[in-house]
Write a structure and sequence with these properties.
It is a single chain. The chain is an alpha+beta fold and about 240 residues long. The chain has a domain of about 160 residues: Gyrase A, domain 2, CATH 3.30.1360. The strands form 3 sheets. Strands 2-3-8-4 form a 4-stranded antiparallel beta sheet. A two-stranded parallel ribbon has the order 1-5. It has a two-stranded antiparallel ribbon with strand order 6-7.
Amino acid sequence: MSSEIQYKSDMDVELIDSMGDDEAIAAAARVSTGNHIMAYSEKANAGLINFLMRDRHGTPFEHNSFTFRISAPLFVFYEFHRHRVGWSYNEESARYRELDPVFYVPRPDRALRQIGKPGAYTFELGSDQQVAWTRIAHESIAEAAWTEYQELMVEGVAREVARNVLPVSIYKTMYATCNLRSLFSFLSLRWAHPLSTVPTYPLDEIQQVSQQMEELVRPLFPLAFKAFDKNGRVSP
């Protein structure tokens, strides 16, 4: 493995596997009346799915599945793991392998200043000096931590102990699997979308992940996402 440190500002999301479609959502809803075997038009399915979304009948949106491979800094995974209902995770383990030297550094246009009090604040761009110092601080910590991490292992210290010196800016990879209802809940909280009717203030980096996840799944469920947007992007 190369010991040359790499710095990144972006998140990587890949859709590994998926199951289901809009018709499956409609069929799951119609099974309650015994009409799930019949064929229905796209217009009929769209009307039903919008009704389910509007009135928050959520279970028909659970009969599907998506598995994503996500590469992001460790602190983004901390945000992810708050989502537990309908989610499964398997994360790259620093106990079993030596991690790659890839670390996060905020991009220059990432908001750096928190203005206001908790619960009523905004994030604004930093000054040129703040941007420069933020990058310098991230890089210097990453370099020092990586040096100590490798030296500990050279001295025979177990990976599960040596990893303790690494910062939360190090990149890791995980598989995350969910259904559409769980994904809608995630998107409603982790993306401050213009169509959202419920205010949310997501971490910038996890919003990047959210946007990529939606971009990958939306084409598979166009009617469901149209209803999601129409009804204020509130999870059913």
